[in-house]
Amino acid sequence: MNRPDLARLLADVRAGKIRALYVTKLDRLTRRLTDLLEIVKILERHGCALISASETVDTSTPAGRMMLQLLGVFAEFERARIGERTADVLGDRRRRGKVYTGVTPFGYTRDGDELLPNPAQLAALDEAKAMLDDGASLRQVGSFLVRCVGGRWHPQTVKDVLSSRIARERTASTAS
Fold it and tell me: Could you tell me which of 18, 84, 138, 159 has the fewest CB atoms within 10 Å of its CB?
């Protein structure tokens, strides 16, 4: 529901500027059942019809409302399944040391779709984490990283790198 274009559309519905909302498929409107029901409630309250090019839904009948809700349930289910599949693929690529994002994580270098450990960066990461644990500020850690590996290190960048999955996993592996 927090999409600017949807907010403008619903404002126009509330203002009576729209009598019918035409969508190609209901799941292109939203993939959350609660959001779909809220949108339908707003449309009904303001006399605006919902028309789908792909699904035959008549919300003026009990059967039509049931069908709308079932379609919403399946859209939400599909959204969750896409998220699961994406997480599974990214997790598998990460475990196999393959590139899994467009950004090469600090501590690694990229060779094609392989992520190779960068010993100098990993050592700097361990030292930076220890400095922070010993009470150094993010600015102090950033100054250390500038001297150690170069580049520009803003406090937020230092915080992001030190709270990354790689930093957490390295801390967990050294603690055990």
Answer: 84
